C-alpha cells in the first residue's frame, strides 16, 4: 500500500469518527453540523489521495460518501452534485455502471436546481460511456435525446444539434432511416437560417438523401428536389452530382456505374465508415450481395 493510500485511509477513519461524534448528545447540541462538514471534507481529501495512488474504486467510494453527506445532511445540493461528478470521473476508470449511477445522481440535483445545461452535459457523458465502453447504442441514443431536449429548452441550438446529429448517425446505422432523415432535415433547416452554419446544411441533406436511397428509391428524387428548393446552393455541389449518379445506377441496376461513382467521389472526399456502410446497403439492395463498393 502506498503512502497516499495510507494517508487516504487515515482521512477515512477520521471522517467516520466525526460522523459518530456528531450523533451523541453533546454532538447534537454543539457543532453537529461542523462535524459533518469536516467529515465531508475528509472524505473528499481521501478521494484525492486515492486518485494520486490510482486506486480509482476507493477514490470513487470516498467522493460518494462526501456527496451523500452534502446532499442528505448538509443540504448543499450544488456541492453534492460536484462530489458525485468527481466520483463518476474516478469510476469511469474502474466501474462504468457506478460512473453512470453517480452522474444520474448529479443530473437529478442539477435538474432540481434548474441547471439544465449542466445536466445536459452529463447526459452526454453518460451517452459516451454507453457508446464507447458498454456498446449499448440504444441507451446512448436515449441520453443524447435527453441532452438535446435540455439544450433546446435553454435555446442552446448549436449544442442541441450536435446531440441530434449523434442520434441520426446511430438511427441510420440501425436502419431506422425515417428517424434519421427527420433529424437531418430538421437540423439542416435550422442551419440554413444561420449565416455561420448555412453551408453545413449541405452535408445534412446529403446524409438524408443517402438514407432515402436505403429506404425508397422512388422517394429520393422527390426529397432531393425539396432540398434544392430549400437550399439552392446544393445544386452545384459534388454531393448532388454524386447522388444523381447513384440514383441512376440504382434505377438501372448498374453495378459498374455505382462502383465507379463511389470510387470517383472517394478519391477526392474520403468516405468514412458511416458513408461506406450505407453505400454497401444501397448496393446490396439491387445486387443482393455484400461485395465491396470499391
From TrEMBL:
Keywords: ER-Golgi transport, Membrane, Protein transport, Transport. Its main location: membrane. It is a peripheral membrane protein. The keyword 4Fe-4S does not apply. GO terms for molecular function: soluble NSF attachment protein activity; syntaxin binding. SMART domains: TPR. Gene3D superfamilies: Tetratricopeptide repeat domain. GO terms for biological process: intracellular protein transport; SNARE complex disassembly. PANTHER family: ALPHA-SOLUBLE NSF ATTACHMENT PROTEIN, SOLUBLE NSF ATTACHMENT PROTEIN SNAP. Belongs to the SNAP family. This is Alpha-soluble NSF attachment protein. The gene is NAPA.
Amino acid at each position: 500500500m502506498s503512502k497516499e493510500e495510507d494517508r487516504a485511509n487515515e482521512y477515512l477513519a477520521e471522517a467516520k469518527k466525526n460522523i459518530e461524534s456528531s450523533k451523541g448528545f453533546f454532538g447534537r447540541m454543539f457543532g453537529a453540523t461542523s462535524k459533518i462538514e469536516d467529515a465531508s471534507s475528509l472524505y473528499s481529501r481521501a478521494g484525492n489521495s486515492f486518485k494520486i495512488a490510482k486506486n480509482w474504486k476507493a477514490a470513487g467510494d470516498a467522493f460518494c460518501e462526501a456527496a451523500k453527506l452534502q446532499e442528505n445532511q448538509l443540504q448543499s445540493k450544488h456541492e453534492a452534485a460536484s462530489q458525485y461528478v468527481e466520483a463518476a470521473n474516478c469510476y469511469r476508470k474502474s466501474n462504468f455502471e457506478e460512473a453512470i449511477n453517480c452522474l444520474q445522481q448529479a443530473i437529478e440535483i442539477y435538474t432540481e436546481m434548474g441547471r439544465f445545461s449542466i445536466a445536459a452535459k452529463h447526459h452526454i457523458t453518460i451517452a459516451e460511456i454507453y457508446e464507447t465502453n458498454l456498446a449499448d447504442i440504444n441507451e446512448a441514443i436515449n441520453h443524447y435525446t435527453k441532452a438535446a431536449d435540455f439544450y433546446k429548452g435553454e435555446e442552446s441550438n448549436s449544442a442541441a444539434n450536435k446531440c441530434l446529429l449523434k442520434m441520426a448517425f446511430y438511427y441510420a446505422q440501425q436502419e431506422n432511416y425515417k428517424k434519421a432523415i427527420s433529424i437531418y432535415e430538421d437540423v439542416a433547416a435550422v442551419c440554413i437560417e444561420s449565416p455561420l452554419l448555412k453551408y453545413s446544411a449541405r452535408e445534412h441533406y446529403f446524409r438524408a438523401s443517402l438514407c432515402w436511397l436505403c429506404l425508397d428509391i422512388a422517394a429520393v428524387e422527390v426529397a432531393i428536389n425539396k432540398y434544392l428548393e430549400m437550399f439552392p446552393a446544393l445544386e452545384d455541389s459534388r454531393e448532388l452530382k454524386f447522388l444523381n449518379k447513384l440514383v441512376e445506377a440504382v434505377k438501372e441496376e448498374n453495378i459498374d456505374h455505382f462502383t465507379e461513382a463511389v470510387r470517383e467521389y472517394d478519391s477526392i472526399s474520403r468516405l468514412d465508415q458511416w458513408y461506406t456502410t450505407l453505400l454497401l446497403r444501397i448496393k446490396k439492395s439491387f445486387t443482393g450481395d455484400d461485395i465491396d463498393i470499391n
